[in-house]
Specification:
Layout lengths: L1 H16 L2 H17 L11 H7 L11 H7 L4 E10 L5 E9 L4 E8 L4 H11 L8 E4 L7 H9 L3 E4 L9 H13 L6 H17 L21 E7 L4 E7 L1
Parallel strand pairs: 1-4, 4-5
Antiparallel strand pairs: 1-2, 2-3, 6-7
Length: 247
């Protein structure tokens, strides 16, 4: 109790000779001391209005958090992104993918050597029919998404949601898919070779690759097999395997 009394007396003495700003600090110190000394009997009366005026309040978010937004609209969300692939001839290819959040499905992809806003807008038309378009489209702030692209998205009645600058964690689903492709599709010769490899990989990804977030299921749900011996079926040219049971 002596330490609290010392803090109180010190704060009261400072109030007589301090500026306005320092007085506010002293008052907050006093309130903190009173809060810590609640188990003890103190005969100091402070009005409720004074406590409410100087009490430090915890800041609250002005709206729902980013995680809450993603969870609430998971069935209405899709993400888009570009990534680059280097061929064995040191050429740079650009891959555009569209990912639906609900089952982590890659609904569309394409490859080009020279991406433009017009080309990207055309990919949105190929990815979604007007009656199947998502409500929200999550993208980064890449300059490729210019006016032509935004006009096409608006025509399709899709609301574009931009992630914060340098915040790939806000687009974790599509970034995870891109990371998997970079690690697991290693040899590319040219544009046709990359398309063929990605087509095989996405077939494996949708039918066979398990996700913890989907309760260890694949984007295209698999039935539980309990009878027969387990064998592996090679996929993506033998880079991966799908395991199943046969009688």
């Amino acid at each position: 109790m002596s330490c609290y009394a010392g803090s109180v007396l010190n704060s009261l003495s400072l109030l007589k000779t301090s500026s306005t700003f320092e007085c506010l600090i002293c008052v907050r110190t006093l309130l903190a001391c009173f809060a810590d000394a609640r188990p003890y009997i103190m005969s100091i009366g402070i009005s409720e209005a004074s406590v409410a005026k100087y009490m430090v309040r915890s800041p609250k978010p002005p709206s729902q958090t980013w995680r809450t937004f993603l969870n609430n609209h998971v069935s209405q969300l899709a993400s888009i992104d570009f990534f680059t692939v280097h061929t064995v001839w040191f050429e740079i290819l650009f891959v555009f993918i569209v990912l639906a959040h609900d089952r982590r499905r890659v609904v569309h992809f394409n490859v080009t050597t020279h991406p433009t806003a017009e080309w990207t807008a055309q990919q949105m038309l190929e990815a979604f029919r007007f009656d199947k378009a998502p409500r929200y489209l999550l993208s980064d702030r890449d300059g490729i998404y210019r006016q032509e692209f935004r006009k096409q998205v608006e025509i399709m009645n899709i609301k574009e949601v931009l992630s914060a600058p340098r915040s790939p964690w806000q687009r974790a689903y599509v970034e995870r898919v891109i990371g998997s492709i970079r690690r697991e599709c290693v040899i590319v010769f040219n544009e046709d070779s990359l398309r063929r490899t990605l087509r095989l990989y996405f077939s494996y990804y949708h039918r066979s690759r398990l996700h913890l977030s989907l309760d260890k299921d694949s984007p295209d749900s698999r039935s539980v097999e309990s009878v027969g011996r387990v064998i592996g079926f090679p996929e993506v040219g033998g880079l991966h395997h799908r395991y199943g049971r046969v009688a």
